[in-house]
Amino acid sequence: MTTAVTGATGQFGGLVVDGLIARGVGASDIVAIVRDEVKAKSLSDRGVQVRVADYGDVDALRSALAGVDKLLLVSGSDVGQRVAQHTNVIDAAEATGVSLIAYTSVLKADTSGVSLAVEHVATEERLAASSIPSVLLRNGWYWENYQASLQQAIDTGVLLGAAADGKLAAASRADFAAAAVQVLLSEGHEGQIYELGGDERLTYTELAAVIAQVSGKPVVSKDVSEDEYRSILEGAGLPDFVAEMLASADAGIARGDLDTDSGDLQKLIGRASTPVAEILG
């Protein structure tokens, strides 16, 4: 059984490759699909099959997927281009006889109002039309997404956002990766949609209290409008599309788009999710 992981030099894909090996999969039975072979040297040194293919290169993708049984399609990072890119991967998988595609989507993709959901929904629809059985790993928000602004919150004593009193069922990147590993290594997941979120369903007020606890300094949350938050992020130097994504995500938290009590993550990984204090501490 050969398992391929796209974006294998990225943070999420790398954790999945590590998880597969830790679970006893032989490195030579793992195909790491990457854009930059140099960045994948540590993988090839461990015996992983490294195959170079950009999401935009269908011929290279077909070569990379030759002989692959199961594929984890890690969603691309090029906002606005992902539907075409993901379609290329799925087309190549169909052409090469892949037997299962697991796709990293976003929580509640089909009903979510967050800007990120649009491309995920389109990819899910392409998978539904495919001859290849698929499983949707609808990942919630990563707690690590707050690490970039953590020091500012500690220094200013304010966790700024636009999430109102909405709850956020985030989890660590490693927890979501562990769920993907479980799906790849076990049977019976075809056609399943997993709504993945952590045990801690926190408001920003509660998240600020956790930051205060781990830092030893007072931190409170301050809520602004989505438009205001977007402007503040742009003023801080973030690219427009990043500011839009983060502001839209916060608005989604306020609506409940990034909250779930499904228990799907916990069932897949066989334990509770990693506490946010461990991630941000």
From TrEMBL:
What GO molecular functions are on record for this protein? NAD(P)H dehydrogenase (quinone) activity
**Keyword Oxidoreductase tagged:** yes
Enzyme class, broadest EC rank: oxidoreductase
- InterPro entries according to UniProt: NAD(P)-bd_dom_sf, NmrA-like, NmrA-type_oxidoreductase
Keyword Metal-binding assigned to the entry: answer is no
- Report keywords, A-Z: Oxidoreductase
Q: Where is the NmrA-like domain?
A: 3-248
Pfam families in the cross-refs: NmrA
> Where would one find coiled-coil regions in this protein?
none
**Any idea of its EC number?**
1.6.5.2
What protein am I looking at? SDR family oxidoreductase
Q: Which organism is it from?
A: Rhodococcus sovatensis
